[in-house]
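All the exercises in this workshop are built on plain-text protein records. A record pairs a protein's sequence with a compact description of its fold. Backbone structure tokens are a discrete shorthand for how the chain folds in space. Once this layout is familiar, the rest of the handout is easier to follow. As an example, a complete record with its sequence and its structure tokens follows.
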Amino acid sequence: RNSQPILSNKSQMLGMPQFGLRDNLIKCELLKNEDAYTYIKNYSFFLGTYNVNGQNPKESLSPWLASTATPPDFYLVGFQELDLSKEAFLFNDTPKEPEWMLAVYKGLHPDAKYALVKLVRLVGIMLLFYVKAEHAAHISEMEAETVGTGVMGRMGNKGAVAIRFQFHNSDICVVNSHLAAHTEEFERRNQDFKDICRRIQFRQDDLTLPPLTIMKHNVVLWLGDLNYRISDLEVDHVKDLIAKKDFETLYNHDQLKRQMDEEVVFVGFTEGEIDFQPTYKYDTGSDQWDTSEKCRVPAWCDRILWRGKNIKQLHYQSHMTLKTSDHKPVSSLLEIGIKVVNEESYKRTFEEIVRHIDRMENDCIPSVSLSEREFFFQDVKFMQHQAKTVSVYNDGQVPCQFEFIPKLDEPTYCKPWLTANPAKGTSVDIDLEVFVNRSTAPELNSGQQQLEDILVLHLERGKDYFISVTGNYLPSCFGSSLSTLCLLRERIQDMPLETIRELVRSCHFYKSTAISDRFTDSYIFEPLKLLTISVLQEELFQQPGLRGEFEEIRDCLDTGSLDTLPGSNHSVAEALLLFLDALPDPVIPFSFYPQCLDCCSDSSRCRQIISVLPQCHKNVFNYLIAFLQELLKHSAHNRLDVSILGRLTIHIHCLFLCTLSADLESAGQFQTQRFILHKTHSVLSEDEQNGK
């Protein structure tokens, strides 16, 4: 249900438009005195997680979902790898969703009636939320979000789905995640966790309020295939410890335990004692450990953790009788103390607060002081986050509300490379964050824009404060046009900004042949080093790189500090995608899109389009096509095919569009590329379809 402005729902009542600063103060005082009008009542939450390895439901889920003696009040059931097909990956649609949903419904505890509150899914990651029918009326402010953390941080084969809701007076957030695979990739799993926490933001009913993050809730429940493995032990030793039920020794080598002990991830979270054998990896349909050629080391991949007060775990176990997948399902039964409002106590507390504010309202005006008013960001780089903090101190006698407001004739309160978090609130520390991405880098590289902005902090019923934000941006090949890179003779960071600005202006006057004459000895060959990655690398363009390695690669290209690129093949591959994605005008320029769409069924006309491309674009296109052909020649090693490469081009504005089909037609993939082309046309933005 939607929240109603009734006495017991104070946050919604006080957020109504007719309430102003006075009632924000009442809200703060009510939150401060919450213990005076609420009491704790325990409710049971059943949490379950199951990686089904793309299988259909073949057996009853009752041994897992109905394993408790009494029916729980809540069910929160998460699945991973619901569907491994390419169709599910491309279109986020799968017939297996209703099949597993029905299997869950049939497997719920038979001694209670349950209502489905919410279903949320991202590719193969699905979360189902059921509640006893009698509790449904007390659930409000329901929101759901998803985030992909695959290649380039966008694809949904890995990531998380999450829901948040209010039950009585407690805010609860539930996350189901599937993190990066492979034993050695624990740092990538750590990064996935941090990205999920940062990027999942829930809209509030009051749209003037900032979105809520995961950690802003009273209770956080986290489940899923976290993919943390057993380290530093041979597979036979691990199996021997399992046979002896020496789980304590085995747990000391668990990657998640080690990362939590070092406070790298899941800070403030709790996990119950693990007294069951690892849930991965089994031969499908049996209880036998993996007998495949890879012979995976058993691991506790499937986990359930929680964060908050008044939470007690009643059981934490795996369910060995289910054999559909190469994982075993895991469940946890939690008893959670929920804050319930006492109506009489609430009314009495509310009236006391209102009387107190009435006495002081006319005697006080809001006032704040700022820790600093001028900020300089040194050496800002492409896709490298920098942050500084300004503290807002309330030096008046009443709580106050601030908000950053747009300057005259400007649509937003700040430039697109700058963010203030939070942008509104009371006395807090505000993070001023600078982040240059594909949309802001071109104008900064060319000198058309500088890192300069003035923020206007407006105090409700008070005066405005001005905060100066400046900095210096280090130009990068990322976000520079191909024609500009062809004109450069030195590394981009070795050239004065004024010289770069002149070259950008001159690109409009140089003839195409003049630029092409400079191609062979130009700076363009620095970013083209990204094409030197090994074409034999397995899972290339499918396994994400590391953020730190990308930054080293970017610095190497911009400064020429190393002759060979640092980092893994996966990091270099991701850097190549980011370079292409950041081009102001793609390899196939926007102006050619209508022609490409018209001739997609005629390979000879496709080649004609290639022949009339600007020379530097045509040269780069030929390099890229040659690279793609090399990848396909070694597909037996790298496991790439045209479908995968085509899917990547869709995610980066279809860099090769239909011209790719002309150069790969000899491989018998023409029809596939026509399919990709038409799918691409459907995702182009309106201005791109009009030939931006």
In short: The longest helix spans residues 615-633. The first strand starts at residue 38 and ends at 51.
